[in-house]
Amino acid sequence: MSIKRVWQGFEAVLHALVLVMSLLLLFTSPWILIGRQLTERAGFWDLFHVYGGLLTAMVAVLFLIKVCKGGQWRLFFPWLIFDVKPLLSDVGGLLRGQLPHSGGKGLISVIEGVGVILLLLVALTGVAWFVAEPANALTWRHYHIMFTHGFIGFIVLHCLLGLLHIRDFFN
């Protein structure tokens, strides 16, 4: 089996893996008791959160590669090349009561791109918290929690947009 075929198979499950790991980490996070660093008395959920989070950080980077592969980044991050006309068109349509359609470089794709950025920020700050000196760890913890709250908002919005996508099948 070639590396390309293995990657294609892995690509097919990346979105689901990001979803499952993110939800597991989010739903179990109230049970973790980590301040500055992981201690030798850390419980199962603390260990799961840290090492599951490190795994999810690696998966998030692979997800970014998948999203950006073959020029797809232009769909999710069109503002990087100042291509904002489809986004502004969708926002204008919303103001007139028209729901945006999925696909293209419009509002829904840009929101998905923001979700990828938030996922990476959660991952980056989690890794930084893990490797930080104890004196700086609480700062990284604060940023990790802040970006996590943004990512939770994105997940809710992403689910609502998924319902809009289902609507597109019937039009």
TrEMBL record:
SUPFAM superfamilies: Transmembrane di-heme cytochromes (SSF81342). InterPro entries: Di-haem_cyt_TM. Keywords: Membrane, Transmembrane, Transmembrane helix. The chain crosses the membrane at residues 12-35, 47-65, 106-131, 143-166. This is Cytochrome b561. It comes from Shewanella saliphila.
